[in-house]
Design goal:
By secondary structure, the protein is of the alpha/beta class. About 30% of the residues lie in helices and about 10% in strands. It has a four-stranded parallel beta sheet with strand order 1-2-3-4.
């Protein structure tokens, strides 16, 4: 009688890349950052707007691409199947701008699409499938959303609008362009 396979015989990582749009979202890591190395802390500081602000502040170039950055450390065995989604805090002006903040990501100069394209390239060089962007209060008219979508697509980005488009409905995701 054969028993169940040993753990050494089971490999759950597929040989071929996935076709589904899966992603790692930075929000979980952003919320984990505050308090690292502190001897003690009041958990109330992590609640509500205070906690959101701390998470927003933690999304920086160093957190993403530094020596122990998330893009270099997280999910090495499956990242080729995952888009790296920058959550709340990557942007320059507002969450619907889809513009990388130059103070938060100073090593990525140039126009908005060029900066996003450079970030995408660095993520892909680290083995990620591509770049994703979180947005809020995305415009609901085609005339206003079209320039944002063009910017994202010209950078090869993945857009995941949230908290907009009429009462918090999600517009879903747009895959990266094939021709870069």
């Amino acid at each position: 009688m054969l028993g169940p396979p040993s753990h050494a015989d089971v490999n759950l990582v597929p040989e071929q890349p996935a076709t589904a749009l899966n992603y790692f979202c930075t929000w979980s890591a952003q919320n984990y950052m505050y308090g690292q190395g502190l001897a003690g802390m009041d958990p109330a500081v992590l609640e509500g707007g205070s906690g959101s602000n701390l998470a927003w502040q933690s999304l920086t170039e160093g957190a993403v691409f530094g020596p122990k950055g998330w893009a270099n450390e997280f999910y090495p065995r499956v990242r080729k199947d995952l888009y790296f989604l920058l959550d709340d805090g990557y942007y320059a002006a507002d969450a619907a701008s889809m513009e990388l903040g130059p103070r938060k990501f100073p090593s990525f100069p140039g126009n908005p699409a060029g900066r996003l394209k450079a970030v995408r390239g660095k993520l892909e060089a680290a083995g990620w499938r591509g770049l994703g962007l979180w947005t809020r209060h995305t415009p609901s008219t085609a005339a206003k959303i079209e320039p944002l979508l063009r910017r994202s697509l010209s950078a090869g980005g993945l857009v995941r609008p949230r908290d907009g488009l009429g009462g918090g409905q999600s517009a879903g995701t747009l895959p990266q362009q094939k021709n870069r």
